[in-house]
Specification:
heterodimer, A: mainly beta, 0% helix, B: mainly beta, 6-stranded mixed beta sheet, 5-stranded antiparallel beta sheet, 60% strand
C-alpha cells in the first residue's frame, strides 16, 4: 500500500518568504509527527498530532513555525519569514497509534533558504 | 532530559562479518526503543521496536537487545551484506511522552 507522502520533495526559497510543506500519512494512522534533520545533526522533534489535535508543540523552534492537520489525515507545516537556519530536511512520520506502533517516515522535504 | 548516544559514529566492514551497533540512553524510564535505517536522501525505515518489558526482538538477520536498567541497546547484524550499508538510528520514547528522541546514528559501510 501507499506509504507516507511528502511534497514538495525539494524547495528552494528566498529568505523572508513563507513556505508550506505537506504530508499525507498512511490511511488510518491516527498519529502524525514532524521532525527536522539538519546536516550533521540528529532528528529534532517539532510537533505531533493525535487525530487533529496537537498535544505537544514544544519542539517548534519559534512562532514562525506552525502546523495543522485536517480530517485526521493531511498535515501542513508552515514556516513564515524563512531564515537561512531553517534550511534542513523536514521529515513527516505516521503511526497507527501514539505508542508502541512503529513509525513510518516519508522521504522528506529538503528546504533550502537562500 | 533524555539523551541518546550511538557508538561508533561510523563503521566499515567487509561483507560477511557479524557486527554490533551500540545505543545508550540517559533516562531509563522509557516506554519503548526503536531501531531505524536511513538510506541517503530517503526517510527512515523502521527495523525493530522493543517494548520496555521486552529484552530483545529479532527480524531476519537483525537482533536488537534492550537492557533498560543500564540504559543500553545493541543491534546485531549477522552475515552483513553490501545492501546493509546505511545509517542506523536508535530512538526512545519516554514514559509519559509521545515523541521519539533520536541518537545521531551509526553510518555503516559494508564492502563487497
Amino acid at each position: 500500500g501507499a506509504g507516507v507522502s511528502q511534497s514538495p520533495s525539494n524547495k528552494v526559497t528566498e529568505k523572508g518568504k513563507d513556505v508550506e510543506l505537506r504530508c499525507d500519512p498512511i490511511s488510518g494512522h491516527t498519529a502524525l509527527y514532524w521532525y527536522r534533520q539538519s546536516l550533521g545533526q540528529g532528528l529534532e522533534f517539532l510537533i505531533y498530532f493525535q487525530g487533529n489535535s496537537a498535544p505537544d508543540k514544544s519542539g517548534l523552534p519559534s512562532d514562525r513555525f506552525s502546523a495543522e492537520r485536517t480530517g485526521g489525515s493531511v498535515s501542513t507545516l508552515t514556516i513564515q519569514r524563512t531564515q537561512q537556519e531553517d534550511s534542513a530536511v523536514y521529515l513527516c512520520a505516521s503511526s497507527l497509534e501514539i505508542l508502541n506502533s512503529p513509525l513510518h517516515f516519508g522521504n522528506g522535504t529538503r528546504l533550502t533558504v537562500t | 532530559k533524555q539523551e541518546v548516544t550511538q557508538i561508533p559514529a561510523a563503521l566499515s566492514v567487509p561483507e560477511g562479518e557479524n557486527l554490533v551497533l551500540n545505543c545508550s540512553f540517559t533516562d531509563s524510564a522509557i516506554y519503548n526503543l526503536q531501531w531505524f535505517r536511513q538510506d541517503p536522501g530517503k526517510g527512515l525505515t523502521s527495523l525493530l521496536l522493543i517494548q520496555s518489558s521486552q529484552r530483545e526482538q529479532t527480524s531476519g538477520r537483525l537482533n536488537a537487545s534492550l537492557d533498560k536498567s543500564s540504559g543500553r541497546s545493541t543491534l546485531y547484524i549477522a552475515a552483513s551484506q553490501p545492501g546493509d550499508s546505511a545509517t542506523y538510528l536508535c530512538a526512545v520514547t519516554n514514559t509519559g511522552f509521545q515523541k521519539l528522541v533520536f541518537g545521531t546514528g551509526t553510518r555503516l559501510l559494508v564492502s563487497p
